[in-house]
C-alpha cells in the first residue's frame, strides 16, 4: 500500500469513529429561540435552561477565560439519553466567537474558552436544549 493510500484509510477511519459517536439529530425537536416570561424573575424551568457566564483570569497574551454552565441557582440541566443540552454558543458583541456540541448522557452543559475582550461591551451565550429550545443569557461588561 502506498503512503498516500494509507493516509486516506487512516483519515477515513477517524471520520467514521467520530460519526459513530454522534447523537441522533432526530432527537432535536425544538430549535426555537425562547423568551423568558419575566426576564427580571426567571422561573425554575427557565433557570434550568439559562447559561451562566463567568469571566475568569486573563492570560499573558490578553485572552480571558470564559466559562459557561447551563443552569443557574443550583438548578442543573439534565443530560439524559432523550433530554440534554446539545450545543452552547458564545458571542462577543453579537459575533460568534466559539461553540461546542455535546453528547447526551456522557457530557453536561458546560463550555469554556479564552477570548480577547478588549473593547467588547457584551457577552451572550445560547444554550440549545433538544426538547425545550434555545435560551440566551447576556452579560454586560
Automatic annotation (TrEMBL):
InterPro entries: Desulfoferrodoxin_Fe-bd_dom, Desulfoferrodoxin_Fe-bd_dom_sf, Desulfoferrodoxin_SOR. One of its GO terms (molecular function) is oxidoreductase activity. Residues 44-135 form the Desulfoferrodoxin ferrous iron-binding domain. Keywords: Electron transport, Iron, Metal-binding, Transport. Gene3D superfamilies: SOR catalytic domain (2.60.40.730). The keyword Transport applies. PANTHER family: SUPEROXIDE REDUCTASE-RELATED. Belongs to the desulfoferrodoxin family. This is Desulfoferrodoxin ferrous iron-binding domain.
Amino acid at each position: 500500500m502506498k503512503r498516500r493510500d494509507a493516509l486516506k484509510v487512516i483519515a477515513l477511519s477517524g471520520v467514521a469513529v467520530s460519526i459513530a459517536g454522534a447523537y441522533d439529530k432526530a432527537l432535536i425537536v425544538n430549535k426555537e429561540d425562547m423568551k423568558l416570561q419575566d426576564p427580571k424573575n426567571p422561573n425554575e424551568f427557565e433557570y434550568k435552561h439559562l447559561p451562566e457566564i463567568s469571566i475568569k483570569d486573563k492570560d499573558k497574551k490578553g485572552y480571558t477565560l470564559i466559562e459557561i454552565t447551563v443552569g443557574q441557582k443550583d438548578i442543573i440541566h439534565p443530560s439524559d439519553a432523550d433530554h440534554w443540552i446539545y450545543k452552547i454558543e458564545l458571542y462577543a458583541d453579537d459575533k460568534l466567537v466559539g461553540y461546542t456540541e455535546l453528547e447526551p448522557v456522557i457530557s453536561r452543559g458546560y463550555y469554556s474558552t479564552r477570548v480577547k475582550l478588549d473593547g467588547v461591551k457584551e457577552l451572550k451565550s445560547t444554550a440549545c436544549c433538544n426538547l425545550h429550545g434555545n435560551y440566551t443569557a447576556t452579560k454586560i461588561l
